[in-house]
């Protein structure tokens, strides 16, 4: 957290002074973008990657040489009604866990719950970066993030480790230019304080912040003797800790199926999808993925089978249940 001697009024004044640039300069700062010829009304797939810039040369104060690393990243594509995290918001239990320990389990459960509400379309996690040298990078699986016109935003998060509750990522980055999906978009990302744990050094196992405070970006202040602060051409500044890149893989049948099924049709116009979908089945104690359609899968034991969650080709939950793809079959049984 910020120093205990720093009053909330001072923090508020600092935030106000930087209000006009905070969204761009602390949530994310655009490096480059290029538009594709693919209309935003067409569901598409993206691949996300992260490149490390958090190194001693840029962030010298108390840099944890020898133990610097990043936790796994979590990326999610979503509607404007979903909030993974945001400036001034309060960290959820999932955000608190990843920011303090690097654990992603609770956050993934929170995201899956929002998939069931059709607020999140897809999500993916990356491996950790065990050695945060300059240029160290990590990425999601190819075509693992779906986006559509109702879910055009992407948010991400990873713990800067070791630390009390510091993290980076971006929230509510739009993946289209208003007309077409970006072919590629790159942004700088910055360090944030989750407001859940005390500490001014790169350390773990600190006292909890009580009461919990809002999520805030690190600010330059008036001294170089603070984490993430360095002296640049314009005086004291907070340099970015990484580059996040999203690259369009193109239209995706899998993403089209998930997008078309994100809202359950009304009962009087309910029609079953003709597309095949993937479910996870267990036979003889062995779990495996199976490609089926409504007539094959939902016509037998619909009370149980219609509640099953469909899966991606990699086995991840899509947030779309069978009853959403097969409303007519499921309602008629």
Strand content: 25-35%
Write down the overall geometry: globular
How many strand segments?
A: 20
Q: Percent helix among the residues?
A: 10-25%
Characterization of this structure:
The chain is an alpha+beta fold and 333 residues long. 20% of the residues lie in helices and 32% in strands. It has nine helices and 20 strands. Strands 3, 4, 5, 8, 9, 10, 12 and 13 form an eight-stranded antiparallel sheet that branches. Strands 1, 2, 6, 7, 11 and 16 form a six-stranded antiparallel sheet that branches. Helix 3 (93-101) packs antiparallel against helix 4 (105-116). It starts with 7 loop residues before the first helix and ends with a helix.
Keywords, separated by commas or semicolons:
about 20% helix, eight-stranded antiparallel β-sheet, alpha+beta, about 325 residues
């Amino acid at each position: 957290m910020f120093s205990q001697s720093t009053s909330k009024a001072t923090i508020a004044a600092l935030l106000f002074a930087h209000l006009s640039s905070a969204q761009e300069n602390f949530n994310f700062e655009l490096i480059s973008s290029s538009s594709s010829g693919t209309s935003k009304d067409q569901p598409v797939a993206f691949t996300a990657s992260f490149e490390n810039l958090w190194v001693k040369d840029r962030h010298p104060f108390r840099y944890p040489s020898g133990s610097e690393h990043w936790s796994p990243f979590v990326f999610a594509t979503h509607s404007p009604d979903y909030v993974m995290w945001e400036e001034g918001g309060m960290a959820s239990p999932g955000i608190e866990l990843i920011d303090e320990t690097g654990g992603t389990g609770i956050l993934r459960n929170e995201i899956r719950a929002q998939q069931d509400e059709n607020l999140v379309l897809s999500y993916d996690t990356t491996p950790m970066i065990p050695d945060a040298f300059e240029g160290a990078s990590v990425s999601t699986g190819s075509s693992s993030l779906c986006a559509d016109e109702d879910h055009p935003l992407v948010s991400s998060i990873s713990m800067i480790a070791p630390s009390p509750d510091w993290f980076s990522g971006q929230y509510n980055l739009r993946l289209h230019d208003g007309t077409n999906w970006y072919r590629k978009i790159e942004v700088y990302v910055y360090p944030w304080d989750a407001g859940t744990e005390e500490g001014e050094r790169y350390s773990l196992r600190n006292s909890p912040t009580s009461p919990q405070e809002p999520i805030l970006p690190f600010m330059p202040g008036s001294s170089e003797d603070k984490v993430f602060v360095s002296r640049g051409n314009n005086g004291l500044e907070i340099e970015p800790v990484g580059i996040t890149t999203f690259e369009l893989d193109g239209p995706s049948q899998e993403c089209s199926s998930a997008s078309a099924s994100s809202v359950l049709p009304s009962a009087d116009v309910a029609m079953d999808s003709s597309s095949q979908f993937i479910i996870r089945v267990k036979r003889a104690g062995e779990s495996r993925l199976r490609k089926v359609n409504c007539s094959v899968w939902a016509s037998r034991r619909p009370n149980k089978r219609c509640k099953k969650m469909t899966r991606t080709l990699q086995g991840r939950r899509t947030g779309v249940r069978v009853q959403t793809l097969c409303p007519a079959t499921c309602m008629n049984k």
